[in-house]
């Protein structure tokens, strides 16, 4: 039986990959991705410090176009910024939506 396959065409040689420093990657991609700043607490004590002392700085979620459209212009409890409206929505959900009576009424679903 003869081999009917065509010979493969010549492929160009790929360019060598040069490693880049993390700072260069960060500077190149963060402005395009619009990532929020990140703080890494490397121990339990550091995590406790950030969550106790600076909790208001880290409490809000990033505002993205997706959250604007899915969250009714940031007005639902999930995407709304921390403040009086968010606290009121949380109280409502705790008292009405996640109450034992409502959850029991939805048991069949």
Reconstruct the topology from this structure.
Elements: H1 22-33, H2 44-53, H3 55-58, H4 65-70, H5 84-97, H6 100-105
Describe this protein's structure.
- The protein has helices spanning 22-33, 44-53, 55-58, 65-70, 84-97, 100-105.
- The chain is mainly alpha-helical and 109 residues long.
- The protein has a domain at 36-105.
- It is extended and about 75 Å long.
- 2% of the residues are buried.
- Belongs to the cytochrome P450 family.
- InterPro entries: Cyt_P450_sf.
- Keywords: Heme, Iron, Metal-binding, Oxidoreductase.
Using the alpha-carbon principal axes, give the shape. Answer: extended
Helical amount: 40-55%
SS element count, helices = 6
Alpha-carbon distance between the two ends: 64 Å
Q: How much strand content do the residues show?
A: under 5%
Pattern of helices and strands: HHHHHH
Number of strands: 0
Given as residue ranges, the uncertain stretches (5+ residues, pLDDT < 50) are none
Multimer state:
single chain
Largest sheet: none
Mean pLDDT: 78
Which structural category fits the helices and strands?
mainly alpha
Cα-atom radius of gyration: 26 Å
Keywords: Heme, Iron, Metal-binding, Oxidoreductase
Region (Disordered): 1-20
Family: Belongs to the cytochrome P450 family.
GO molecular function, one term: iron ion binding
Brief synopsis:
The chain is built from six helices and no strands.
Give descriptors for this structure:
single chain; 109 residues; mainly alpha; 6 helices; extended; iron; oxidoreductase; monooxygenase activity; heme binding
């Amino acid at each position: 039986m003869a081999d009917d396959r065509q010979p493969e065409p010549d492929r160009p040689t790929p360019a060598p990959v040069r490693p880049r420093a993390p700072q260069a990657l960060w500077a190149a991609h963060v402005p395009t991705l619009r990532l929020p700043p990140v703080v890494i607490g490397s121990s339990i004590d550091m995590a406790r410090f950030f969550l106790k002392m600076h909790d208001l700085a880290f409490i809000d979620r990033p505002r993205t176009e997706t959250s604007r459209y899915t969250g009714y212009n940031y007005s639902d409890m999930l995407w709304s910024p921390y403040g009086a409206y968010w606290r009121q929505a949380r109280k409502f959900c705790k008292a009405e939506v996640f109450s034992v009576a409502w959850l029991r009424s939805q048991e069949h679903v």
